[in-house]
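Dear Dr. H.,

I hope your travels went smoothly. While you were away I took the liberty of generating a structure for the chain from your last submission, since the lab meeting agenda had it listed for discussion. I wanted you to have the full record in hand beforehand rather than looking at slides cold. The sequence, exactly as received, is reproduced here:
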Amino acid sequence: MLRLDGLQVYYGEIHALKGVSLDVQRGEIVTLLGNNGAGKTTTLKTISGLLAPRQGSIELEGKPLVGVPPHDVVGLGIGHVPEGRRIFNRLTVRENLLMGAFLRSDGGVDGDLQRVFTLFPRLQERIAQVAGTLSGGEQQMLAIGRALMARPRLLLLDEPSMGLAPVLVEQIFETIAEVNRQGTTILLVEQNAAMALGIAHRGYVLETGSVVLAGTATDLAENADVRRAYLGE
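The corresponding predicted structure, in token form, is as follows:
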């Protein structure tokens, strides 16, 4: 479904991605693991068109994405839940969700609102509340729900558990797994390696902008280097 080949990405003179290649098959959850600064967020931003690679290619179902504006990337079926949530603080929950459907002209928006409320009942309870007054966990639910309102075929998730209490982390990951079961392919960036590997099918490990390890989630969870570096063992 998604293929990255030889991505070279820079921030000025800083070489952020050094030939990153990976693929995501339809129906999978694929996770990117790595320490801060490894290039995980840069990879997602490049897929979304927020950053332009100097070299390399990105294809979605065989169609090139490099040079495609971010709003057109959304229109092609890629949703992005950014690190830090980036909700519209002054808009209500409902207004935030409808912003996710901004590019849509079909008649399924109301049905997708109900889908989001089924996944996140708390959002329905807060539908008229100003988003900036929500708790951190509720804001994360809203960020995911807003992305789902675009009806993406591929969902990019950047650190969905950041700053959340453990009970909320479990809830968020259960919902991510349910979204995948409903048919959405997911590329997940997550510092909580144990939780990420617990729901992923496959994964890649990034170090200083390069892929250093790839395999099934089970293989990575059993890898001694991964266990020592990311699982605290």
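Two observations you may find useful: The mean pLDDT is 93. DSSP finds ten helices and ten strands in the chain.

With kind regards,
E. W.
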